[in-house]
Design a protein that fits this description.
The protein is an alpha/beta fold. It folds into two domains: 248 residues, 3-Layer(aba) Sandwich (Aminopeptidase), CATH 3.40.630; 112 residues, Alpha-Beta Plaits, CATH 3.30.70. Helices cover 34% and strands 25% of the residues. It is built from nine helices and 16 strands. The protein has an eight-stranded mixed sheet, sandwiched between helices. Strands 10-12-8-13 form a four-stranded antiparallel sheet, covered by helices on one side. Strands 7-14 form a two-stranded antiparallel ribbon. Bound molecules: nickel (II) ion. Nickel (II) ion binds next to loops.
Amino acid sequence: MSFAEQLIDWRRELHQYPELSLQEFETTRRVRHWLENAGLRLLPLSLPTGVVAEVGRGEKIIALRADIDALPIHEVTDVPFASRHPGVMHACGHDIHTSVMLGAALLLKEKEQHLAGRVRILFQPAEESFGGAQRMIQAGALDGVSAIFGMHNEPGLPVGAFATRSGAFYANVDRFALKVTGKGAHAARPHEGSDAILLASQLVVALQSIASRNVNTLESVVLSVTRIQGGNTWNVLPEHVELEGTLRTHQPAVRDQVKRRVNEIAAGLAQAFAADIAVTWYEGPSALINPARWATFAREVADEQGYRTEEADLHMGGEDFAVYLQQIPGAFVSIGSDSQYGLHHPAFDPDENLLEEAARYFARLAEKALLQS
Ligand code: NI
């Protein structure tokens, strides 16, 4: 079996048996097994799911990171290696990322004697639910590491294309919940109550004015109300309505500004409608910030390896890799996977031809990063 065939084979096996965040036990077992068979050293870290391997020797350590979890999505592709776990799918291509970093580990193992230090390869659980990176750090996976690199496949780019950017890349992710409390009433006698549904409707509309009328038009911001729930019959005005949604930004100042405006609008509307609106914020991952030096380095190595490189657009999604970059420098990059359907789509079908080139790229990137001061 050729190297490319091996990577495709591994990716297909991972794809058939996807597991949700923090339930990646079989995936962990498989990855451990493949790494051990290839002679890689596994670090004895305390991790229920996830694996960390190492190759080379010396003081200096460079890390590569793959994520291993899947999504609660029912696959609708007709590929022969489609998910055998109903309702669970590698719809974000983390099977691809895992196979790429397995390949990089094998290539680094072959040239172990020539490495100017150690390369540590992280197979991280729970990227989708966020928190996996934090677990890896707590288990010691980043100890002694001077720089870390990772990838996400990009369905909008063809195979052979590479993109990254310096500074903010992926977004700050915030989730909010709004609880509107009015006064219940008979639907035919609304003047006796305070209509929580009418108020919630005004709230949804008013929140959309923040991005369009408060934030500088040149800044990136998305605020989406994604759930609204209230009432349980046709002839009663309910007392409570709950709303939920998400805010995506890149700049801390914009994030603070929008949160402040949401709170102000909620307080103002509550007063105007003689009701109460409780706002709760849940902080997700912060923006992923690529240090310029390492983003430039990652792109230069990609150029040398024959990728067609370009400046990446800002991404409105969140990425748990941001947590590593808050601790140590490094770079996160996009590799073209050319899927007609996008990430998190039940028909997502990335082109496996990206595997070999990406594995060779990351092996080379780590090798060269060891030579940087
Ligand atoms: Ni992903």
